[in-house]
Amino acid sequence: MEKLLEVKNLTKTFTLGSVLSRVKITAVDNISFYIKPAEIFALAGESGCGKTTTARIIMGFEHATSGAIIHSGKKEAKNEKVWFTEGIQAIFQDPFGTFNPLRQVERYFFETIENYKLAKSKRAAVERIDAKLRLVGLSYEDLAGKYPSEFSGGQLQRISIARALLTDPQLIIADEPVSMVDASLRMSIVNLFKKLRDELGVSVLYITHDLATAYYVCDRIAIMFRGKIAEMGTVEQVLMAPKHPYTQLLRASIPEADTAHRWQGEIRLTDAEEEEYLRQGCRFAGRCPRVMDICRTTPPPDFEVEGAQVACHLYADAG
Ligand code: SF4
Prior knowledge:
Elements: E1 5-16, E2 23-35, E3 40-44, H1 51-59, E4 66-71, H2 80-86, E5 88-91, H3 95-98, H4 105-115, H5 122-135, H6 140-143, H7 153-165, E6 171-175, H8 183-200, E7 203-208, H9 211-217, E8 220-225, E9 228-234, H10 235-240, H11 245-252, H12 271-278, E10 302-305, E11 308-311
Parallel strand pairs: 3-7, 3-8, 5-6, 6-7
Antiparallel strand pairs: 1-2, 1-4, 8-9, 9-11, 10-11
Helix pairs in contact: 5-7
This protein binds iron/sulfur cluster.
Residues 244-246, 282, 284-285, 288, 290-292, 295, 300, 312-314 line the site of iron/sulfur cluster (SF4).
């Protein structure tokens, strides 16, 4: 099976608190997953689960404490470093925060073209910009000379996607890309990711708290809880027949958007979240309706259950 990107045993430890009460949190704890070419893969979970930290490490915004991110895709002519710069692009949660209100939107496109040397003349640059904007249902004429305030949030998110496409990336990392977009426009943005996958073969790492859009748009999903992957498999396996008690709970109550743990923000945890991170054994033991004695002392390993990967002692006899 061909893999585009592989995350292997990734771990990230932060030290939080003041000098007097320092505490070490393993925000991402030995997680592994891969993304295939032309696949939409979701990292999902509630606030503070480690999904955004994982994405930040893949993007190079953050260093891993240990583990590896491996580009295993094609495009052999390009070395690893070039691939990571051009081959991965990001789309952020707040489309208005992405663009400076005092700067014409087209400047961002020309800047990217200049940085990556993507066109030899202004005319070629405009043609490239126009081609990418048409992929998201807009054109160069729609944005020439305009400022961010002249667009809706949905339009700006489309523009962000078009800008990300300038370098012909193989992977787009989308961090809660529709959580700040009008509900009526969400599906049109989400459908764009499907279009990019189906027509251009672009893969998407979809970071979200929203299981409904994840189910609609994604091929596979990993549910994270306090830095660990609780359950991973196809969206059908994980969301239609959840095995892990946490996934079952998540399905029953969709959490709010991850506003406390934004892409650029520092890690801040509530006391309850911090306690769960520091828990011996299964980190979900304090809330799990099916908790057993072993859960309080021993972290559960991964078990394969009907094709999905589930980290829960309930399935110790599954194999
Ligand atoms: Fe619940 Fe135990 Fe499974 Fe953790 S390992 S989810 S506490 S049953």
